[in-house]
Structures are given as structure tokens and as C-alpha cells.
């Protein structure tokens, strides 16, 4: 991520997609509807229990304890990671995206999802 933020010109050199046109990159991708929908559905199912748990951890009497603050932060990170690794990946699988289809989105999501 440091390369993208602080040395963006070098990032553009390393992740250059100008070797082919956008149409050519689209032909390299493979649309996979069943797998994409599976990623999205399973991700949403796994994310649903996080919402009530995180809401309960925010209650004033619990959030005073440092352990609940840590658990809330870890739950929030898990929730965001699931959104990227399941829902966004499902969307990109349905689109048949390759790395050069959405270079900025895929790079930032990859860096964020692998934290």
C-alpha cells in the first residue's frame, strides 16, 4: 500500500496495464455466475451474526472494559475483511474481472483484505 500512496508513479510502472486494450483484458476474464453468487451468499451469511454481536459490544456497560473494545475492533476488522474477501470477490467473479479490469480497486482491496 505504501507503493500506491507514496510512490504512485512507480506503482503505475509496476502495475501497468497498457500492454492490451480494455476490450482485450475483458476477453481474458472468465465469468463464473455460480461461484460468484456462492461467494456473495456465503459472505452475507457469515457477516450477519457480526452485526448484533458488534451492536451488543457497543453498550456502555460492556464497552467500558478494555476486552470488549479489543473484541469490537477485531470484529470490525473481520466484518470488513469478509466484505472484501467474499462480497467484493463475488462481484468481481460475476464480472469476470482480471487484475487490469479494475486495477486500483483490486490493489486496494487486496491490501485491505489481507491485513
From TrEMBL:
Pfam families on file: 7TM_GPCR_Srt (PF10321)
Keywords from the UniProt entry: Membrane, Transmembrane, Transmembrane helix
Domain of life the protein comes from: Eukaryota
Transmembrane feature ranges: 37-58, 70-94
Keyword Transmembrane on entry: yes
InterPro entries: 7TM_GPCR_serpentine_rcpt_Srt
Name under which the protein is recorded: G_PROTEIN_RECEP_F1_2 domain-containing protein
Organism listed in the record: Steinernema glaseri
